[in-house]
Specification:
Layout (H helix, E strand, L loop, with lengths): L2 E4 L2 E4 L6 H6 L3 E3 L4 E4 L3 H10 L7 H6 L24 H11 L3 E6 L5 H14 L5 E6 L4 H11 L4 E5 L19 E7 L8 H9 L4 E6 L10 H10 L4 E5 L11 H8 L1 H4 L4 H8 E4 L5 E5 L2 H8 L3 E4 L10 E8 L3 H20 L4 H16 L13 H11 L5 E4 L3 H14 L4 E4 L5 H13 L5 E4 L1 H4 L10 E4 L6 H8 L11 E8 L2 H11 L4 H11 L8
Parallel strand pairs: 5-10, 5-13, 6-8, 6-9, 7-8, 9-10, 14-19, 15-17, 15-18, 16-17, 18-19
Antiparallel strand pairs: 1-2, 2-4, 3-4, 11-12
Helix pairs in contact: 5-6, 6-17, 8-9, 13-14, 14-21
């Protein structure tokens, strides 16, 4: 046979004159075996079935091209699978649309109830006998959130396993005399690119009748990353797939390709990222390797519309408004002098190394941002810290609960130290050093304990998947260069359950680096592109750092 599946991969043994079939299927040449290899999915199976005689294709490939799992009528009331809460009409609308699809995406803004909707959808499919297993792949920082929400809302029997590095899933999931539960495994997406995470997830999905959920699916937007490839391989083992994110295209429509490929390869219908890019992206720059624009966007959106549901913040009429404020901070002479020296060194470096201009500027901006926060590039504190002083003055004016976001660990340590000096035992701090199992209790303590007023974390650790609705104030001591980090972190306290207006305060010094970051966030720009465009237009770095 010319097309078979071996070790989970489609292997093509074709004569030279049929190599075009392999290339059109996105296959790669494997010199050691002198075969072409590609991922097994319905899109590839459909192409091979159309290009080769059926007797030259193995049955397991033909099965991929068969009709999807038959889905019975949806429940009369999705609320029968959830306890303690009533689904909102807009959530029910999304569930109705997702029910008839083997693959679907909930592009719901943060706080719209993606986790709750997923629990309900899984419960309904379990009740109808469509699934026996549920795999949730999410950022490690939110694994505890899934455990809490499942225990809180699932109105059906579940057996839950939270996978941690070095552990193995249980061999026996429930007692013989217990009602058969839905088996649920929650795994960190980071584990798919290191260790045995993928093999453990694969073993869990292998028995079949499984649903796979990819929470914060924008984490697989890079088509060639290890976690993306692993997620796509695992998706082929799941009867149902669900992608969840409120930030599905922060850098452009190219972010959609792998997310929709996970949902259903037939959704967009492009065999590879490069064929997708060729069709929908306008290339330019050096050797035309840079995406400079888009084309056929309406066609693309029409293709994914049947496979996705979108809720924007404007659709959530019952949420109170967001309010924004900037507190200006005057940098010290020490900070001004250090940044002046950084600019001088950067200009000299750019004159010597013109090939890595954007990279060098971003590195210099990172150092300047550390200075703006009151530290040198080694993490040592400067003689004075005007931004920290301003933060403490701000908190004196406020008597509720506040979330404080800071990018760098030395900043977090300094903030916590000052808070502990002024407010005795009123602060919880969440960093990467906190074990995953201990994170949710800290969040619960902040939410429930009136004595705990402050939650301090970085956007990369605490900025996704957690609920901090006890806070009505969020202070950005420093921002990352990633727009998604800002969007995600803002909605930790502005989400369902929040009944008050939320105030977002940026502490911004008069150092140019803070002004640049504020401009990119305010205009929702990608920092690396903003830097590249600035250098291309003016060639000057004074407006950046």
């Amino acid at each position: 046979m010319k097309a078979v599946i071996e070790d989970g991969t489609i292997v093509l043994r074709l004569p030279f004159f049929q190599n075009f079939i392999a290339k059109s299927a996105g296959a790669r040449w494997h010199p050691a075996t002198k075969t072409w290899r590609c991922s097994p999915n319905p899109l590839v199976a459909a192409l091979l079935t159309a290009a080769l005689p059926r007797e030259e294709i193995s049955d397991d490939i033909l099965i991929l091209n068969d009709a999807p799992v038959a889905i019975p009528n949806k429940p009369d009331d999705f609320n029968e699978f959830v306890r303690g809460v009533t689904l909102r009409p807009r959530q029910v609308q999304g569930l109705n649309k997702a029910w008839d699809r083997n693959g679907y995406a909930l592009f719901w803004v943060m706080g719209a109830g993606k986790t709750l909707a997923t629990i309900v959808l899984a419960g309904a499919r379990f009740d109808r006998g469509l699934i026996q297993r549920l795999l949730v792949v999410c950022p490690t920082s939110v694994k505890g959130v899934w455990a809490k929400e499942l225990n809180r809302y699932a109105k059906f029997p579940v057996s839950l396993y939270i996978h941690e590095s070095g552990k193995t899933p249980p061999r026996v999931w429930h007692k013989p005399d217990e009602e058969r539960p839905l088996l649920i495994m929650v795994a960190g997406i980071e584990s798919l690119s290191a260790g045995h995470g993928e093999s453990i997830c694969k073993e869990f999905l292998a028995p079949g009748n499984a649903m796979m959920v990819l929470d914060e699916s924008s984490r697989i937007k890079h088509h060639d990353s290890g976690r993306t490839k692993a997620s796509l391989r695992l998706s082929q083992l799941a009867s149902f797939r669900l992608a969840l994110t409120g930030t599905n295209a922060t850098q452009g429509i190219q972010d959609l390709y792998t997310q929709m490929h996970f949902v259903d390869p037939m959704a967009i219908g492009e065999i590879s990222y490069y064929s997708f890019r060729s069709r929908y992206c306008v290339m330019g720059g050096f050797q035309e390797r840079k995406i400079v624009g888009y084309t056929r966007v309406d066609t693309l959106l029409n293709k994914i519309a049947p496979y996705s549901d979108t809720i924007r913040k404007s659709d959530m009429k019952d949420l109170p408004p967001k309010l924004y404020q900037t507190r200006k901070v005057s940098a010290s002479k020490e900070q001004l002098d250090i940044c002046k020296s950084l600019r001088r060194d950067l200009k000299m470096k750019l004159s010597e190394d013109k090939e890595h201009r954007v990279k060098n500027v971003l590195e210099a901006m990172l150092r300047a941002q550390q200075v703006a926060g009151g530290f040198d590039h080694t993490g040592e504190p400067l003689r004075s810290n005007p931004k920290l002083d301003e933060l403490m003055d701000l908190l004196e004016e406020f008597d509720g609960k506040a979330v404080i976001w800071a990018r760098f660990l030395p900043e977090i340590a300094a903030i916590v130290k000052r808070l502990n000096e002024r407010y005795d035992r009123a602060t919880v701090v969440l960093t990467g050093a906190v074990p995953p199992a201990d994170r949710q209790p800290l969040i619960d303590k902040f939410q429930a304990d009136d004595k705990i007023r402050f939650f301090v974390s970085s956007q990369t650790v605490g900025g996704a998947g957690v609920t901090l609705t006890a806070a009505t104030l969020a202070v950005y001591y420093s921002n990352t260069f990633n727009l998604e980090d800002r969007l995600q972190s803002e909605d930790r306290n502005h989400r369902l359950g929040q009944t008050n207006s939320c105030l977002y305060v940026d502490l911004t010094s008069n150092l140019q680096v803070d002004q640049t970051i504020a401009e990119t966030i305010g205009n929702k720009l990608v920092m690396s592109k903003f830097v590249a465009d600035t250098l291309a237009n003016s060639g000057e770095v004074d407006s950046l750092i």
